[in-house]
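Postdoc handover notes: sequence design on the structure in folder B. Input tokens:
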């Protein structure tokens, strides 16, 4: 399993994500970074975690459809694979991201609709899908996914080529309460789909969260707050990496 650092970008800065209340996110104040400048934060997170993949949530794209393409290109040139959620809403939105070699676009159930093309006509083999929940309830912009459970959504998309999925409850982000509920979903998905890359996170606060995710068969664990604000977590992470 890999630890995947998370960067939430807003107005050219890295912000602290808490419980999905995006309008209130403020520039991050970190114990490991001297500023909230994205390239600086990216370098510090990669140095701390030895991560080869970084998850980037472009909140300007997600909330307003106004991505800073220049900044995203600079991040993508930094040597790490970027999992990018920029609020892709349709196929046209995906084209620019798909053309960047080191970027894997993340299409999120809360935002992607396809503008008539729909999920059914989207090539999912090179993408990652984020099944977004809030307090356990699926958030789906596309009516074809409305009312479906996370398992039904994954089955529907797996049958069309999806092999990488993020399961995330945004209400747990930055909460330090751990991804307990979504780990149950991840465990059930692992039992059924042995070739599916499963990523989760939200509220990661200790090595216990890492061990629980490993036991659930998770491939990647998203984390941000604990990396920036918890010396204990950073110490536990280094020990876990040493043993792994």
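Designed sequence:
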């Amino acid at each position: 399993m890999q630890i995947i650092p998370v960067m939430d970008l807003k107005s050219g800065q890295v912000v602290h994500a808490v419980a999905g209340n995006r309008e209130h996110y403020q520039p991050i104040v970190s114990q490991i970074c001297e500023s909230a400048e994205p390239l600086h934060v990216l370098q510090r997170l990669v140095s701390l975690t030895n991560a080869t993949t970084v998850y980037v949530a472009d909140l300007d794209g997600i909330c307003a459809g106004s991505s800073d393409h220049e900044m995203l290109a600079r991040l993508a040139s930094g040597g790490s694979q970027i999992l990018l959620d920029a609020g892709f809403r349709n196929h046209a939105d995906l084209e620019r991201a798909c053309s960047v070699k080191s970027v894997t676009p993340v299409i999120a159930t809360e935002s992607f609709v396809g503008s008539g093309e729909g999920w059914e006509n989207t090539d999912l083999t090179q993408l990652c899908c984020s099944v977004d929940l809030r307090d356990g309830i699926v958030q789906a912009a596309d009516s074809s996914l409305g009312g479906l459970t996370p398992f039904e959504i994954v089955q529907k998309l797996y049958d069309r080529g999806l092999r990488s999925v993020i399961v995330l409850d945004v209400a747990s982000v930055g909460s330090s309460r751990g991804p307990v509920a979504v780990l149950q979903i991840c465990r059930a998905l692992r039992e059924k789909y042995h070739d599916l890359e499963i990523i989760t996170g939200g509220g990661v606060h200790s090595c216990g969260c890492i061990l629980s995710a490993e036991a659930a068969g998770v491939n990647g664990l998203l984390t941000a707050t604990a990396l920036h604000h918890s010396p204990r977590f950073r110490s536990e992470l280094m020990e876990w990496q040493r043993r792994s």
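Context for whoever picks this up: The domain at 2-239 is CATH 3.20.20.70 (TIM Barrel). Don't rerun without checking with the PI first.
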